[in-house]
Amino acid sequence: MRRKYSLIPLYASRTVRFVLFCALCLNLTLLTSPSQAAPTGNLAYAVNGFDENLGRFDWNLYTTAFRGTKDFNAIPLNHKGMYPSWGPNGELLYFIQRNKGNSDVYSIDPESPKNKKRITPISGTYRFLSVSPTGRKLAFNGYTIDQIPQENQIWVMDLETEEMDVMTQVPHLGWPYSFWGMSWSPNGKRLAFSLSRPGWLEHLYLLDVETKEIEILTELNKDFYPVWAPSGDRILFLRWNREFDTFCTIDIETKEIEPLFDVDKATGYWGDWSPEGDYIVYSRWGSIYLYEFATDETQDVVEVDGSIFVVAWLRDGEILPVEPQKKLVTTWSDIKRSATQR
User: Fold this and answer.
1) Within this chain, do residues 25 and 112 fall inside the same structural domain, yes or no?
2) CB 3.0 to 4.6 Å from 87: which of 78, 92, 129, 166, for a disulfide?
3) 132-160 b/e with 16+ CB inside 10 Å = b?
4) Which structural domain, as residue segments, surrounds residue 4?
5) CA distances from residue 226 to 202, 203, 217, 270 in whole angstroms, order as listed
6) Distance from C-alpha of 233 to C-alpha of 192, rounded to nearest angstrom
7) Closest CA to 304 of 55, 46, 97
8) How many Cβ atoms from other residues are within 10 Å of residue 340's Cβ?
């Protein structure tokens, strides 16, 4: 009898431990489930389509807020513009607006977007705007009203002094080179950009904003629309293929490229990272899609009547100072010489 009753607490103890273990596993699963953390933040994008306030087809600015729900509304800001780029805290939204053949950078308060402020002291033809992580500088490419299209270069503007500094000296050789995207590194020290080269290829480069040195990231492909990851270790970009395009990431240190997924030809325009880096958004015709890295799943979150281009996700995370240990520094003459030798 003593042996019988001594076994009852033992079995009971094992049962209790098993139940507690199962409950712990369930809690851990719920806490780490990828679908548990819904995306948050604000999107800004340009829509080419009819707007009831602005009229016929044109590039108009819209925003969409992620609030942990599935109700994603496209809110018109009633401003014509392209290349929207958030200030670091979302207090300002910068964009490029074209007027009478010229373009300028403007800013608005997204909470009260009625009034806009002109930022660039010199009008020109500008594209691919990007705001530095501190919000003190703007980067864009283009040429001023006093220049010719062949002088298309990257500019960095100091918002306090309003000085515009030419960052590149791309030899045009009689015809203009086209930039295809630009993005600040999270520590504000470098710019990633895409540039067309001889042979109608677009390569990815890194520009040191202090030394103006250039580092090659990719070659022998058509790679464009680079966007730096919030962690600073990867860059998202779109790679052209003959039958489709592919969203990829490239490791800054190793230069290793990881294909993510394919999109229809010439429709998966611009992508951006979530502030935590666990999602990306990208546009396809009149829709914005959300891709989750943990599940490898994509869902349609926003639909508009028109075409969407340049999606910017408001980043409010901390700035991480990530720098590669080794850098391949080159000059445009070196790039030209290597391209000629191939």
Assistant:
1) no
2) 92
3) bbebebbbbbbbbeeeeeeebbbbbbebe
4) 1-32
5) 11, 10, 11, 9
6) 12
7) 46
8) 8
